[in-house]
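Hi P.,

Sorry for the delay on this. The queue was packed all week, but I finally got your sequence through. Input first:
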Amino acid sequence: MVFGWLRELSCFPARGQHFDWKTCTVYTCPCCAKTCLDCCDPSRTKTRRTQYSQASPRRAQNYYPPPPPQVYLPLNQPSPPYRPRGATRHDYYPVRTIIPKKPKAMDLPMRKLNPHDRDYKFYAQRFNESWLHPGKTAEIRHIYLASRTDLMQSSRAQRFAEALTKSDGSFVTRFHGSQRACYLGEGGGGDIDPCGKSKCHICGILKNGFDRRLAKNTGMFGPGIYSTECSSKADIYAKNSHIRTTRHVILICRVVGDRPQMLVSAETNRQSPDARYNCVEAVLNVAGGRVVYPETVVYDEDQILPVGLVVYKRTRWSP
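Then the structure:
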């Protein structure tokens, strides 16, 4: 059985080489079109034709099957069934190497903090201590925060750093409340994924940053970007639009506000602080102003940067 297989294996007329199963050597025979019985022995001078005289081309193809065709995808042309002749690897590449990448949703991604984390305890204490409105309380569910590595790679954070260098190099932490039209942050997952709804202002800020052009002229100090160090005041503006949930969200922001201009009365037409200042703050009513709880206003988008997110549940008050 083995000898017959070796004889058939040696009958390839295209190669012209045969294997002598007696001596275990390979040699070139001038009568390669004959059978192995006629050409395996070099001492034979006559050839004898049998039914195995001619090697079948189909049998040779069975031993060496052609490789499966590889489909290549062109860069600027429709996909052909085979790679065209003359095409190089710079023009075509295999389909299996194409890995679709998910578009980056946020310039500054935020990740959920562990309740035992030091940053979680810091911002939770800041949130609870600055909740000053009587008659209502809040219970924190999740806190999301951007890492230092993401802050170094973010383009918005770089613009914020440039605005910080023009000042004294210090910033203040403030809260910002805005409308939400999705369930951002309520799932408690590792990362947050902003939606694309036009009515979801929170997701719009996370994806594109603050935009002063969208500010209304109804503010006390003109069309600016408002924030506050009082978390309960930011909660007033943290509204849910067309969603059924008992949880709310406010942003943790860094603000270039080390040189505030203190204003006693309202100035609805103001467009920027005076020359020596970089922000505007309201004087409280205990000091002769008209505001009960503090607020900070900046007129440049690069002077405020959202770095975190607080997901909380209102208790004893849920308008």
